[in-house]
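Technical annex, item 7. During the second reporting period the consortium partners agreed on a shared format for inverse folding records so that results from different sites could be compared directly. Each record opens with the tokenized structure and is followed by the designed sequence. A conforming record, contributed by the partner at site C, is shown below for reference.
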């Protein structure tokens, strides 16, 4: 049976054949981030897949992770294509290096998850917050309940973490 919810006025449906994503978003609904961990090599992965991208093994377990990390890269959207997002420009889509599994399987890799920048309550970040976040910012995950037993993982600034003195941001025009 598909899982159904809603985000920002849009229907969200996770097909019943997509069991891995159903499990992922169901874990998010519990308020903890769980990722697939390969039973053979022990490496975690995101997004969900049917086999380990590192060793090809199909069996996995779900492992909880801290949901804390560092902004690896970001996109700052100034022209939203979807009308739902237009009132929120500018907004950030973050790519975050999780604290777990840094430098694995090689020194240049990390366990990375993308998501929108939001405030601590899970609402799209305002321009003041968007203007302070850049590469190197420490963030933590928050979950937006979409109903139907699923939630969306999003990112907010980690107020408890030591922040870098200066973050890298694209040149402001």
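Designed sequence (site C submission):
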């Amino acid at each position: 049976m598909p899982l159904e919810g809603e985000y920002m006025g849009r229907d969200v449906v996770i097909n019943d054949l997509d069991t891995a994503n159903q499990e992922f978003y169901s874990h998010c609904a519990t308020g903890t981030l769980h990722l697939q961990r390969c039973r053979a090599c022990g490496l975690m992965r995101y997004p969900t897949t049917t086999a380990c991208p590192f060793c090809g093994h199909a069996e996995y377990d779900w492992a909880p992770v801290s949901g804390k990390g560092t902004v690896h890269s970001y996109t700052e959207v100034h022209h939203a294509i979807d009308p739902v997002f237009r009132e929120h420009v500018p907004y950030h889509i973050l790519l975050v290096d999780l604290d777990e599994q840094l430098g694995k399987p090689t020194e240049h890799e990390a366990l990375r998850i993308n998501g929108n920048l939001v405030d601590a309550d899970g609402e799209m970040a305002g321009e003041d917050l968007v203007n302070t976040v850049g590469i190197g910012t420490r963030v933590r995950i928050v979950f937006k309940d979409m109903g139907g037993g699923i939630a969306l993982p999003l990112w907010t600034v980690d107020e408890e973490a030591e922040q870098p003195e200066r973050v890298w941001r694209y040149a402001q025009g």
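The first strand starts at residue 3 and ends at 7. The first helix runs from residue 19 to 29. All partners now use this format for quarterly exchanges.
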